[in-house]
Amino acid sequence: MSQATFDDDELFGEAAAETREDVEQHLSAAREALPTADEIWDTSADNVLGVLNGLKSALDVGEAPEHLRQAKKWYTLGERADAFEDADDLEAEIEAVEELLETIEDVHDDVGELTGTVPQLRSSLQDAHDDDDADD
């Protein structure tokens, strides 16, 4: 295939389409890596600590941060090259996935703190009630 077969505009158009496709694929992969609503809602635990441990595990975001990073990288490249005719939808999707990921990570941290605190609270409450029973 000779170089004369493609002109610069045609090549740029193909590259822009491929870049947009890369962004969309990485956004899709990021969303797929996030936990489902049922995974964080349903539980089969017998106690609060079991529920918290299950929730903490369910809040694992897997490869979502890396896919989001790749989507942002390709989006930035496309934007700086002025390759997208209309990229508002991509920008909005990136922001939505980023916000959701941040929320999940914040909740994961909160659940982690509770997982450490609840057993201590239980122990303290048992001690307090044991002291009350000893005083009677």
TrEMBL record:
Keyword Coiled coil: yes
Species this protein is from: Halonotius terrestris
Protein name according to UniProt: Uncharacterized protein
Pfam families tied to this protein: DUF5790
Renumbered residue ranges of the record's region Disordered: 1-20, 116-136
Record field: compositional bias (Acidic residues): 1-12
Coiled coil segments of this chain: 80-110
Biased composition (Polar residues): 117-126
Keywords tagged on the record: Coiled coil
InterPro entries: DUF5790
